[in-house]
Automatic annotation (TrEMBL):
GO terms for biological process: spore germination. Belongs to the GerABKA family. It comes from Cohnella nanjingensis. Keywords: Membrane, Signal, Transmembrane, Transmembrane helix. This is Spore germination protein. InterPro entries: Spore_Ger, UPF0353/GerABKA_families. GO terms for cellular component: membrane.
Amino acid sequence: MCQYLPKGGAGMKFRIAKMLLRLLAAPQSQATSSAPPSSPDDRATLERTLHELNDCMDLVHRKFPSNGMDVVYFAYLVGNDDLYRDIIQPFSNATVQEAAARLACLPYTEVQNSNVCIDGILEGMAAIFLKGKAYLIRIDEAEGRSIAQSETETVISGPHDGFVENLEQNLSVLRRRIKSSHLKTIELPVGEISKTNVVLAYLEGIANPDFVEALKERIKSVEIDSVMDANMFVQLIDENPNSVFPQFLTTERPDAVASKILGGRIAGFVDGSPSVFCSPTSFFDFFSSPDDYYQRWLLGTSLRILRLVGFLITICFTAFYVSITTFHYEMIPHTMLLNLTESRSRVPFPPLIEALLMETTIELLREAGARLPTKIGQTIGIVGGIVIGQAAVQAGFTSNILIIAVATSAIASFVIPSYIMSASLRLIRFGLIILAGVLGNLGLLMGIGFVIIHLAGITNLGTSYLTPLAPFNAGDVLDTFVRGPFWALRKRPSIVKSSNRTRNKMRR
């Protein structure tokens, strides 16, 4: 029984647990990855390692004269405290027999394959070479920002923590919320150069195993040099990559991810990204906010309905204005028609060009406000919108009624919780404006019909994007268009196709 075990901070506990799991799985995973020990050309040796990692100025090669041991690691990936505790202190004055006996204990892992040894060094481990054998020990320093509130998904009530760029921290946050032995995680490397770890998390017995296998196969089929973020990665595994609509829900909120996993969905973590993707996903999932569940159900329902109304306003309001001012004046009340005629009397452009110019100006202000520093961005958004809008009306560049229509459409897009979905709808708005300016109400209806047909044709892991509308499921309405009381939400969503759909046994 070895008495030497590393001691460290809070993050070290999770790393030790992960290391132990890997060691327990060594007969299947590491043994297979180092399976070619029979080939002498693939053996992990000091010479082969130094040759493979040559011309790296941050590579450290340390020798121990007392026992002839060599240690190789990257200086900027390891923690100084771990390096001193696990390598320098125990081996500096140790004899060959003492060093060999210590390396036979945890947390040192013997490796035989050269590729496994080099990959370990690249991940922040140190490689130890003694008497023709190679060992790995994890002494990497977990750097990154501390857990803080998500800036893109703020809530009024409820938890205020958010995911960060460190994969191990994100998994620990999830484990604290779901303390179940049925929570399973699968690690898959993606990226031939970056070797980014992608972890799938799901509840065994609740998540559909066919969905898990389908998502695993789709991830394994990705062949790309590097993956930098979850929002980038989901574009590689989309079933409809040319669609403007996002097909995987991404979020930075641990409570939202835990809720999705408990509902039978699969969550995907990408190392180096604070965003987590969930699947399968429907179109209406993008209009749900964690705030809905932290407030009374009547208030949550009204807010969710308000978002759906905002969705209709943001894609149709400006296009409808262009349609009626170009082709359908008879639809305007007489009292408003006089004001509209007077407002448009000095505008030199037709309604279509006028609307496109103002929508483009709004998008320029939005993009400028997002790219500039926070305080300057707020000034650009408020002052720029007021000054440009007022000046455009006074100069006869546009009508004041169009300013109201464009501003209302822009404000309505802000109520949608998902920024990616909001951006997609803003792009669709331009297409509907053009159709309305060319064909009037007929073009507007044709555009809406095309959008509905396109949504009906999108699938996510083989499930319909318009669930529970198509196919219709009355039981899911209580948690889609409205937020029903918790005692009424007895079943998991039908889209997950779970074998255990019961999630609530309360009776009222």
